[in-house]
Amino acid sequence: MKRFWAVAQAREGADGWEVALDGRPLRTPERALLLLPTGALAEAIAEEWRAVEGEVRPNALPLTGLGNAAVDLVAGDRAGFAAGLARYAASDLTCYRADNPAGLVARQAAVWEPVLKGVEARHGLLFQRTAGVMHVPQPEETLTAIERLFAERSPFELAALQPIVSLSGSAVLALAHLDGALTSEEAFAAGALDEDWQAEQWGEDGEAAAVRARRCSEFASAARFLALSR
Fold first, then answer.
1. Mind listing the pLDDT tens digit for each residue in 113-161?
2. Residue 1: inside a domain, yes or no?
3. Closest Cα to residue 114, out of 23, 60, 122, 81?
4. Whole domain around residue 116: which residue ranges?
5. pTM score of the predicted model
6. Are residues 113 and 202 in the same domain?
7. Do both 50 and 107 map to the same domain?
8. What is the pLDDT of residues 37-56, one digit of tens each?
9. Rounded CA gap, 66 and 225, in Å?
10. String of b and e for 29-44 (b: at least 16 CB within 10 Å)?
11. 156 and 215 together in one domain
């Protein structure tokens, strides 16, 4: 599809904020109205559409895509999405530490342990830590509490949290970001700690760098969507 509109604008309606192209409101792929929770998010999505030149490329509209997901996918199954995010806590990245080399062990402890302790303290949780890759069960009370924490979030917050959790491999890092204990940049760096360590030791090829850049961009868009939705 090529650009067919002259004006993209955010506007407030009776049921929420929307984005209109030449006066016609955006609809999701399922043909629902793209109703948004805040004017700031609507304006940011309108800006995405203003920036389109020539063909419409979905990867250039990340906020729109997350909004579509919130309306079409998450809103009808908040509990299911919350449960899916909470499952990451059962084998959370921050709980599985290296046993060597010493430098990596120290870096994981310095970056992950304060975050993990902070989440435990703020939410009354307890996580089991281990060295190596053998699975260690987490307390059922912890997993249930994390699922409840996610279930309290709006469909728009959950839509943003899905890439944040999946890209980092960590429900803990996502909760720390939600709590304001980590910036989005800090949360992404914490999730990429192991691969960054390896790149420092052995060098990073161009393809790996390009993949990391795409993941970083996707993570940043999700974090921005989360902030604008609240």
1. 999 999 999 999 999 999 988 999 999 999 999 999 999 999 999 999 9
2. no
3. 122
4. 78-229
5. 0.96
6. yes
7. no
8. 999 999 999 999 999 999 99
9. 8
10. eeeeebbbbbeebbbb
11. yes
